[in-house]
Amino acid sequence: MLSIINQNISYRVTFIIAFAIIVRIIMLILFDFNCLFATGDSLYYLEVGRNIFNFAIHGEGNPVTASYYRPPIYSAFVGLIDTIFGYNLNAFFIIQSIISIWGAIITYFLLSEHSKHISFLSSLLIASSPFEALMNSRVFSENITTMFLLMSFLIMVFSQKKSRFIISGILMGFTILSRDVYLLLPIFTVMFFMIINKREKGLIIYLIAVIITISPWIIRNFQLSNGGLFLSKGILGPGLWIGTWEKNPDWMRNSKLLPDDVFIIGTNEDKKNEIRDRWEHRNQFDQYFKNLSFEKITSEPLDVIKTWIIRAPRLWFGTRSDHYAMRAVSGSHKYFFYKSVFFMLNAIIIITGILGIFASYKNDKRFFLLSIPIIYVFIIFLPLHVETRYSASVLPFIIIFSSYFIVKKWIIYRGNQSRPEGYN
User: Fold this and answer.
1) What is the CA radius of gyration of the chain?
2) Rounded CA gap, 345 and 129, in Å?
3) pLDDT-derived band at 157, boundaries 50, 70, 90
């Protein structure tokens, strides 16, 4: 690696791109991308994306009606690709792969002034991450959310330009308009800066840039609905309610029916049937499920907290391949081997990334600021339904901290190796 780092920039970038392409070819061999291309959330993005370009309406249904369920950017992105290339898996995979690899290259340049070793290893691992490659094969909003989020923080923390807070704020606005769960991240970021005594004057400008970026969508929702300022509506309540009882998210893949143990003790059959019926149309009963959540939390608080704790590791640890169809026969030795490799690879990234966060807190407070979105995701998803996919947008940050830890340990090891014999 050291010999590669010492080469010129074009050679290093070419090496990163080549490695990223090789990993994606391997994923194409191991997985059948066509199998699950348009299922689940992907169907929503495809339908709404087409309606944006066919009817100029961000909506769904027949006839098309305005939708507030998710923010608009990724739906518009999907609709644009579908309009130009048609229903084409390869187009989505190639374009989303280009975005991911481009984000990794930008990461290299933004981090290079801090450390050329950390920047190169981070960029290489992000570009060649098999989990990122798999994500590129599906119509998931994380494909562009990750890039917006990563660029926002890298520019804010490492750029020397005076306009960095404006650019970072705009990119954070795009992040929120791609994945609404990040709506509170700007406030969290400012608070985090203040806690570690980084009172940057540009933080107010950052917040203003975020607000200006997302305001048109909030105004649109206000005008088309019955009033109220909101970014999206219909997804929080069900997610929060699931979070009060779900210990393992696998039930959603095996069956869409609610398990029998989700109800508060003493719930009568009529109430159970009412909940089951509204679950089938849960997007229309956001407030109903919020009320159920608060009822569950207040009546069985210890059980709910226990559930949150048991479920929390599922956001981070796993094979990160559950949403993809492996070509190996399920249950076969090959299948088990590949799944084990993915699990171990992800576990190594997560563990070394956590060690890198602690190391940066001790030695490099500026670098430590990159942990803000990781900590935010941990907190915000604690009470919600989770899948490892939901941490995908902060996985590049974890990879950067993993690279930080590996490089620092390598430097220490090399330093010890170069000491003369008998040196104390």
Assistant:
1) 23
2) 10
3) very high
pTM score: 0.91
Distance between CA atoms of residues 182 and 98, nearest Å: 24
- The one-letter amino acid code at 60 reads E
If you write DSSP's letter for every residue of 275-303 in order, what string do you get?
Answer: HHHHHTTGGG-HHHHHHHHHHHHHHSHHH
Query: Angle, nearest 10°, between helix axes 202-224 and 164-176?
Result: 30
**Rounded mean pLDDT, 128-145:** 94
Residue 11 CB neighbours (<10 A): 12
Nearest Cα to Cα of residue 243 among 308, 317, 310: 308
Average pLDDT estimate for 324-342: 92
Kindly write down the DSSP assignment for every residue of 324-381, as one continuous string: SEESSPTTSHHHHHHHHHHHHHHHHHHHHHHHHHHHHHHH-HHHHGGGHHHHHHHHHT
C-alpha to C-alpha distance for 404 and 248, rounded to whole angstroms: 32
Distance of CA 366 to the CA centre of its chain: 22
Who's near 357: CB < 8 A, 6+ residues apart? 368, 371, 374, 401
Answer yes or no: are the C-beta atoms of 394 and 374 closer than 8 Å: yes
Q: Which residue type does 423 have?
A: Y
Residue 225 has pLDDT above 90, yes or no: no
Is residue 5 scored above 70 in pLDDT?
no
What are 183-210's pLDDT values in tens digits? Answer: 999 999 999 998 886 667 889 999 999 9
Domain limits, the chain: 2-38+87-418
The angle subtended at Cα 184 by Cα 68 and Cα 229, nearest 5°, is: 40
